[in-house]
Each structure stands twice: as structure tokens, then as C-alpha cells.
Amino acid sequence: MKIVLFSTKPYDKIWFEPLSGQYGMEVKFLEPKLDEDTVFMAKGSELVCAFVNDILNDKVIAELKRLEIKGILMRCAGYNNVDLNAAFEYGIPVMRVPGYSPEAVAEFAMGLCLTVNRYIHKAYARTRDFNMNINGLMGRDLCNKTAGIIGTGRIGQAMIRICKGFGMRVMAYDVYPNKNLDVEYVDLDTLFSKSDLISLHCPLTQETHYIIDEHALSLMPKGVYIINTSRGPLIKTSALIQELKVPGRIGGVGLDVYEEEGDLFYEDHSNEIMEDEQLARLASFPNVIITSHQGYFTREAMQAIAIETMENAYAIEHGTELVNQVK
Ligand code: NAI
H or E segment at 214? Predict the structure, then answer.
């Protein structure tokens, strides 16, 4: 079968190219993002491989059907950007790569927390300029503080292990509590009001959209750290900015994802005037660090994503069980 990959970068080729021969698949790499304007480029392929900011709405999926696409391969864990009803209606299976490296994302989440808490981003800039003054860089111990983990799936569990390793107390919230986990489940309001560090690890759904809004923020203790490595719209950015404007209110914010990241992330905008006022405002706070959706980006994760995606393609081609199908 022929697979067309949208939104590709040179680092995608490194992992996919060597596998194509091994799996007997032809792989075509395209740089454009998949959306209504670019979907025609899938013509001539049997499988479409997409990433986190591609747009697979009903119109795109209808066109994929017309182009006789046999399957959608998401080379990521999340699938909030796919209209699953449309895919089901048109009979196109949607495959994903769950749990390719939960540690990659959880380790990054803790990295963001350490960075904003201890101002490592500021310290780096200062010492590069031989400014060895540490005024204003004081953080807080994480040991004996409370971490609140929202979503206790693969990444949430890895984050719980890491927080415990730091000597933190951990509480969690999940719509489906995991009885096998050694963690105290609490309701959301309790988690918001009792956590020194709040880390989001749930998917983006109708229920989790703006899970951190004005109400949630109003419950959080002074000096709270908020980390989002899941999906941007879990946080209402406008509400977060209002709280960040109050001196001392928020300890730090680490964002690997952003509400409006779709047309911004993964591209170089350094020579442009930033038109997204909210992103510009967020970046202006000394205790906010923003990264460009790179939590997953380790060698181990990239390799696992490529292998699992090819396995998913193989399963569609050979009619074997679609174990990673999104249902
Ligand atoms: P998972 O499916 O293993 O776990 C998700 C957990 O969230 C489940 O336990 C589920 O019950 C829970 N959940 C669902 N609805 C909820 C709700 N309304 N409230 C609270 N919990 C809820 O997923 P995994 O692999 O842990 O990934 C979590 C998220 O991380 C993904 O959905 C994706 O958005 C994000 N992600 C980000 C990456 C990055 O590079 N920054 C890379 C990979 C995933």
C-alpha cells in the first residue's frame, strides 16, 4: 500500500523511511498540513497519515472517501482533531498510537515545572550573558508539596511516579478511576484547591474543554504551578492571563500546548509580527514557559511511533485485528 504522510518534517523521514521497505509499503512525505485545501494531495495513496494539528473534519473525510482512502493513521496518541462520526459513517478506520512513550511526555511535563519553578529559562539567559546575579530566581521545594494529576492514563501514571520520586504527595482526578493505582482520587474542586502543582493528562473532549477556567483558577492556592502537556483547549487562555496579571497569584505555568496552536506550532515565525495577542501576552510573563508541542519528541518515542504506525498500516492492508483503532 502507499501511505501519504501530511505535516512532515525532516525528523519524520529519519524514522519512517527505513521501515517502508521492511513493511513493503511506499511512503510519501508531504510538508503541508492536511485540511480542506490540501486533502487532494492524498490522491493515489491508500492510507493517510496525519499528526496533531491536521484537520480531519467531515469535509476532509468525505473527500478522503472519494479518493478511496482505506484508513487514517494518526501518528500520535490524541485524536481530537478527527471527526470520528464522519470516519465511522464513511467506513474509514482511524488508527492511533497509544502509549508510545508515556515517560517522554511526563518527563517533559516535570521539566516544564522545574523550569518555571526554578527560573532555569531566566538563569540560562543570564549566565550566557555572564550575568551571575540570582536576584528574582528563587523557587520552592517540590518535596512535601502536593501534585494534582488530571487524567490517570499512561502519561498521568508516569507523571504520578515522577512526582512521588520527588517526594510529593499525589492526588488525582479521572472519570474512570484506576483501582490498581496507589493514588488518592478526589473530586475536581478538591484537586484544584489542594494542589501546589496541577498537571493535565486527560484527552480533549467536550467534557474537558476549558477544564481550567475562571472557576477552577479561583479555587487554586496562591503560587500554584499549572502544567499542560495535553491539549491547548483544556485551559481557557483568557482566564489564565487574567490570573497571571495578579502579582504572586500564579507560581508558574508550563505550556507545551496552546489553545490556538494549530497554525503556529512547528513553524518558524521568528521574523514575523506575532498576531496572536494571547500568545504574545503569555510569553511576556516571566513565570510562563511555552514550548511547541514537543513533549513526545524523544528518539524512543519517535521510533515507537513509526513502528506502531507501520503496524497499524500493515493490519489494515492484511485485514488483521485493528488493535489500535479508535472506536
Ligand atoms: P490515555 O488514554 O492513556 O489516558 C487518558 C486518561 O484521561 C484516561 O485515564 C481517561 O479515563 C482520562 N479521562 C478521559 N476523560 C476525562 C475527563 N473528562 N476528566 C478526567 N480524566 C479523563 O492517554 P495518554 O496516553 O495518557 O495521553 C493523555 C493525553 O496527552 C492525550 O490525550 C494527548 O492529548 C496528550 N499527549 C500529548 C503529547 C505531547 O507531545 N505533548 C504526546 C502524547 C499525548
Answer: helix 214-219
